[in-house]
Amino acid sequence: MRAPRRTAALAGAFVLLLLAGLVGLLVGGVHLSLPDLVAGGGPASESARLVVSLRAPRVGLAALVGACLALAGAALQALLKNPLADPFLLGTSGGAAVGAALAAVAGFSPFVSPAAAFAGAVASSLTVAALARRGGRLDLQRLLLAGLIANAFFSAVLLGVFSVASGQTARTMLFWMMGSLADATPARVLALAPYAAAGFGVLAAFAARLNLFAVGEENAAALGVDVETSKRVVFVAASLLTGAAVAFAGIIGFVGLLVPHAARAVVGNDQRTLLPVSAIAGAALLAAADAASRSVFAPAELPVGAVTAAIGAPVFAWLLLRSS
Amino acid sequence: MSAVLEARGLCASYGATRALDGLDAEIRRGELAALLGENGSGKSTFLKVLARIVAPKAGEVLLDGRPLAAVGRRESARRIAYLPQSLDLVFPIRCLDLVLQGRAPHARGFSADSAEDLERAFAAMRACDVEELADRDAAALSGGERRRVFLARALAQDAEIWLLDEPASGLDLRHRLEFLGLLDRTHAERGTTVLLVTHEIDLAAELADRVILLRRGRVLASGRPDETLTPDRLRATFGVESRIEVDAQGRRRVVPYAPAG
Known about the structure:
The complex is a heterodimer of chains A (324) and B (261). Chain A has a two-stranded antiparallel ribbon. Chain A starts with a helix and ends with a helix. The model of chain A has no long low-confidence stretch (mean pLDDT 86). Chain A has 324 residues and is mostly helical. In chain A, 78% of the residues lie in helices and 1% in strands. Chain A is built from 14 helices and 2 strands. The longest helix of chain A is centred in the N-terminal third of the chain and has 38 residues, at 43-80. Chain B is an alpha/beta fold. Helix content of chain B is 33%, strand content 30%. Chain B has helices at 43-50, 73-79, 95-100, 115-127, 143-156, 173-190, 201-207, 225-228, 231-238, and strands at residues 3-14, 17-28, 32-36, 58-63, 66-67, 80-83, 161-165, 193-198, 210-215, 218-223, 240-246, 252-259. In chain B, the strands form 3 sheets. A 6-stranded mixed β-sheet of chain B has the order 6-7-8-3-9-10, sandwiched between helices. In chain B, strands 2-1-4-5 form a 4-stranded antiparallel β-sheet, covered by helices on one side. A two-stranded antiparallel sheet of chain B has the order 11-12. In chain B, β7, α6 (173-190) and β8 form a beta-alpha-beta unit. In chain B, α4 crosses α5 (143-156) and α5 (143-156) runs parallel beside α6 (173-190). Chain B is globular and about 60 Å long. The N and C termini of chain B lie far apart (39 Å). The model of chain B has no long low-confidence stretch (mean pLDDT 91). The chains are: A mainly alpha (324), B alpha/beta (261).
């Protein structure tokens, strides 16, 4: 892709993110207007400032989690040459949730949960890959089935712990299962940022290799890529991004499926452009989905995962129909 | 002629299936060699081992006398181009980008989009008469167009060794003649070494300087087409009875007529 188009696509995604962030600050149980947001002084703006100070970390967390999930999805799709790859569908998110949930139940501090979620995500990726391997190569049909099996197992574990847990633990389990951005604090946003940055950095360095994988693993090998090492690095980076996102927001499905598709339709499949555009667009999508979850049935809140699934499931169905 | 590629005791397998079983072969600099053999004789696997797509279980490949395993992957990819038999695309990609991928082993971080890369890609596409396909989605190409685009990619790659898997399969007569003519011409102009896998005895007989017959993962015989493509050898290689006919142009033709008893 030529440089000006790349810049335009990045700028466009960024404008979407700004709009979604702005809406995220304004809507919810109490609706604010734009003048409320910009006006200074006075009693009305005092309460507005309070609302914004509560919502800003939530918008920030939504954006970072959305970016992580979209990046992981985009990278896995190119690596596996499969438009249906997604950290949720492949069971990576479920593994991460089980890891984080078990660590929380065992009484570890919340700041251990990204590590536990990462371990769960890696364990899940390895298991799913092993299940999907046939004759020395990853079979795509089997990969999706293996993800299904893994997800069934992980929700059994989560439900099992949920049913014997009580009080605070049960609430925590519900959080991992349904996904939520309600616990956002500036400290949590800051804690997630390095994981997002590290994952993006690694994937950006592998973007050109991923372009070769998107044509085929044999294609990448014939053009001088050490495919086994590259696969490991990309899997670890995607697991890190997924694990971190799940550790801070629970299981939120379909972001990693939806966003790369939409972005690909606009900017094409050059991963050097697609990865950053997906990251920014994923941030925008989850910030917007979270705003919707807070305002559609206000004052009641929908789980944000329900919003992404409501958009994602029909798109997934459409992709499935089109791919066969 | 010196050997540019040499295989010594190569073994390779897919799961329980043994594809190469102690294969020894030499590919000489500048020649056009054809690999012939029945299905499962190890032709495509041999090509994939040379292209470093499949790692051998035992034995080694020498590139200019140096063990291929000791040569950097990018360095060997700059010298060896692989043209696959089929292309199963899932994502959209422009032909130009597919050709530019040939520049990847030359580029920092595999990111080939410098002005020089573009220039070489376009020059290669001109040479293969596919320049007008540059912006087309590669998934929409016909078999003949795809072969030419991949040959352009091998030119852009600046590789001195071309490995082609069934370059003429699935092409109609006209596109077959066009593609093989282009291959022969570019190979002669650039002095590249070509190793191609084919099912077609006629193609090998017409085009190749040397024929290598494979049987069950080993070399059965190799040599000049007229010396190698004999009824005895073809019976051993393919399990068919055949006779040699000479056509009006004086060309030798091998005519298989029955399965061997």
